[in-house]
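notes to self, project folder thing:

trying the whole complex as one job this time. last attempt i did each chain seperately and stitching them together was a nightmare. two parts in total, labels are on each line so i dont mix them up again. if this works i'll redo the older ones the same way
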Amino acid sequence: MSLSKTAEELREGVDLQSIPLAYLIPAIFIGALALPYLGTSYFFINTLIYALLFVGLGQSWNIIGGYAGQISLGHAVMFATGAYTTAILFIYYGITPYLGLIVAGLLAAAVGLSLGALTFRLRYHYFSIATLAATLGIYVIALQWDWIGGAVGLEYPIAQIGDSLSLMFDSRQMYFYVMWAFALGTTVLVYRLHTSKLGIYLKAIDIDQELAENAGISAFWYKMYAMGLSSFIAGIGGGLFAQYVLYVEPRILLELIRNVEFVLIPVIGGLGTVLGPIVGAAIYIFTREYTRTLLGGTQTGLSWVIFGTVLILISMYRPSGLIRRRPVIKDSNEHKETSTVSAGSEADDD
Amino acid sequence: MIPLVLGAVADGLMIGLAYGLVAAGLGLIWGVMDIVNFAHGEHMLIAMYVTLLVTAELSVSPLLLLPVNAVLMFVVGYATYVFIIKRTMDGPVLGQVLCTFGLLLAIRYGIIYLVGPSTRTVSDFAFDGSTTAYGISISYPAVLTAVVSIVTIVLLYFLLERTSIGKAIRATAQDKQAAQVLGIKTDRIYAVSWGIGLAATGIAGTMIATYFPIQPSSTPGVWTIASFAAVALGGLGSIFGAVIGGIVIGLVQNVGATFLDPSYQQLYVYIVLIGALLYQREDILNWVTDR
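result (full assembly):
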C-alpha cells in the first residue's frame, strides 16, 4: 500500500505541495547561508556561486518560458547586454557597478522588449526559431564590434579589486552573498508573480491564447510585460556574471550553450513553478561543474551529450519538469474540480 | 566587376541547391507533423562524418557513400521518430522543441567527443579541381553537388507526387484524422517522413563533405539555420518552395559576402530568416493558427 503510494508520488512529481511556499522559500534560503561552511575549497564555493546565479537566471526564463509559455531561445542576448553594459560603464567610464547593474537591467529590458515587439507575433516554434536567429545574429555582430572588445573581449582592471565601489571582492564568500541576494530577490519576485493577476493571465495565455484574448486579456502586452521583467533580471544576472569572472567576451556570453542553460534549468526543475529553477539550478550546476572536473577539460563535450540526453528524456517522460505546478487558488474539493474540467474539455472537443 | 558578380551568383546557386535539398527534408518533417527539427544540421553532420571517416580509412569514392548515407540516415530518422519523437507528440510544443534541441546537443557534442573539434574535408576526391569560364572559377565538386542535389530533389518530387507512400504522406499532412479513417497508418507515415527528411540530409551531407571544410561546432548550425530560412521563405508543403528558398539563401550569403562585409555572411541569413518568419506567406500563417 505504502509502496504503491510512493510510486504514485514519484510519478506525480516530488510532493512539496503540502508545505506553503511562504515557509519553504525562507527555509531554503536561510539554509543556503550555511552552505559555504560545508567546504572551503575554491571549487566548492565557485560551484555554489554559479548555482545561485543560475537560480536567478532560471527564474528569469521561468517568467517568459514557464508562465507565459513562450520558448525563448534568445535569452543570452539580454544576459550579454547586462554583462557588457556593467563592464563597459565601469571599465570605460569608471561608473560603479552598483549603478551599472541597474542600467544593465534597464538596457536589457529595452533589448528584450524590442526583441519581443519583433517576435511576439510569432507563436510556438516560430517564436523559438526567431529568438534563436536573433541571438546568433547578435553573436556575429558582437564578434566584430571593436568598441565592446570584439572577439577578444574586455577585461576588468584588476588593480581595483576590493575597492569599496568596484563590486569586485577578494574573497569568494562575498560573491556568494551577492549571488544569494540575487537568487532570493528573483525567487521572491516570481513567488509574488505566481499568485498575482499577472501570473494567472500569463498562464492563461500559455494554455490557450485565443481563449485568453476572447476573455479580454491582451496577449501581446502581457507577453511584453513578462519579457520586460524577465529581461531585466537576465540583464542584472549578466552584470553579476561579468563582475564575478571579471571579463566579458562574446563566446562565453552569447554561445548557444548559454541560451540552452536558461532553458535547461527551469525545465529540469519544473516550468511555471517557483521552486523549479532552484531545484534545476542545483541539479544542473553541480552536475556541470563536477562532470567538468571528472571528465577533464578536453572532454567537456561529454557533459553536453549527457545534458542533451537529459533534455530528450525529460521531453519524453516529464515535459513539465520534476516539480508539479502549484494551484494558485486553493480548492477544497480537488476531485470535483478535475471532473468538471475534464467534462468541460470534452465539450470543447466537438 | 562582372566576373565578381557572376562568381558570387554561380557559387550561391550551387550551394543554394544543396540548401534547398536539406531544407526540403526539414520542410517535409515540419509540414507533415508540425515539428521543427532543431537538430537537422546535426543529423547532416552524421552523414558528413561517415563520409570523412570512411573515405579516409578505406579510400573509397564519396559517391559510393551516397546510397549508404541515404539509407543510414533514413534508418536514423525512422528510429528517431519511433523511439523518441513519437513520445512527445501528444505533449506540449515545448516538449518537441526541447526534444530536438536535446538531440542537437547530444549529436553535436557526441561527435566532438568522438572525433575531436578540428576542421576537416575529404582529402582526395576524383573530381577535385576547377575550371575557369567567363573569368570565374568553378570547382568541380561544387558542380557535382549541385547536380546530385537537383537529381535528388526531382526524385523526392516523384516520390511524393507519384507513389502511393507519397500520397499517404500528403494525405496525412493535410488531415491526420481523415487519413486515419481512410486506413493510413499515420504513425508509420510520420516515421517514414522522418526517414525521408533525414535521407535528404544524408545525400547533401555526403556531397558537401567533398569540398566544404567541416567543423562540428559551427557547420551544423549554419545548415540548420539556412534550411529554416529556406522553408520560411518558400513556404511549407512544397518541395520547390524550399528549393527556391534555398537558392535565395545561397545567393544572399554569397552575394552578401562578396559585396558587403564577408565576416557578416551568416548575419545576412539570420536577417532573411527573421524577416521571412515575420512576413510569412499566408499558407504558413493559416497553418499555424489552424493547429
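what i see at first glance: Chain A touches chain B through 47 residues (CB under 8 Å).
need to look closer tmrw
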